User: Which sequence fits this backbone?
């Protein structure tokens, strides 16, 4: 695990910075979002974060996430220090209220590379797939699609109804990329963090950042072959 983290840190230094929107909604899977935020904090020039009210509730009820006061985390306490233990001294992470429909990311004139919704609830998926813009998360996603930018959606629900599947089909046809919260096991995970890193690595791949947070398929076999050949 430590080697993967060291390799990822070295890789971060060689990647170009970017501007991304990260939205968290009220589905199970907040650890994916927090890990992604942790990586983007080191990687990107600017990250705009929108956390829905339901997502804050999930943080508290599912993951016992609390503020520094020990009480239930409130919207006013949202910060990189509270969420990932990293103070943001350079102001690169901007938090928005989902009710702030006039925020900068609500306009296509605001430059950004794309948006990730992780985890994505089925209600958020339905809103995005039908072009609704009742809050900042929906509007920002709509803007990203109309501007032909990258929209990555990480849905987390099971089982899936026909309505869910049709909404997924619709957003893909509109240009979004779906990465269901289905981590693989071929990297031989030994702890939950390995599963989280597997999915986050897949998200980063689609964002254009190639980081080996976990061992990729075939890489061990290739390295083993390389060692054997070098010994001949």
Assistant:
């Amino acid at each position: 695990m430590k080697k993967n983290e060291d390799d990822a840190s070295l890789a971060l230094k060689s990647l170009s910075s970017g501007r991304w929107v990260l939205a968290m909604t009220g589905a199970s899977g907040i650890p994916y979002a927090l890990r992604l935020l942790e990586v983007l904090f080191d990687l990107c020039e600017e990250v705009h974060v929108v956390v829905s009210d339901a997502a804050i509730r999930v943080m508290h009820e599912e993951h016992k996430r609390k503020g520094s006061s020990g009480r239930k985390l409130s919207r006013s306490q949202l910060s990189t220090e509270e969420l990932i233990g990293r103070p943001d001294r350079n102001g690169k992470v901007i938090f928005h209220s989902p009710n702030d429909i006039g925020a900068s990311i609500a306009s296509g004139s605001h430059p950004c590379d794309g948006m990730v919704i992780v985890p994505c609830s089925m209600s958020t998926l339905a809103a995005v797939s039908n072009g609704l813009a009742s809050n900042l998360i929906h509007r920002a996603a709509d803007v990203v699609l109309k501007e032909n930018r990258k929209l990555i959606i990480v849905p987390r629900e099971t089982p899936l109804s026909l309505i869910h599947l049709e909404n997924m089909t619709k957003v893909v046809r509109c240009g979004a990329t779906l990465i269901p919260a289905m981590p693989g096991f071929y990297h031989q995970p030994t702890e939950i963090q390995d599963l989280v890193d597997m999915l986050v690595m897949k998200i980063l791949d689609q964002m254009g950042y190639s980081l080996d947070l976990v061992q990729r398929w075939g890489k061990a076999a290739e390295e083993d072959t390389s060692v054997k050949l070098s010994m001949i």
Remarks:
- Residues 5 and 213 are 7 Å apart (CA to CA).
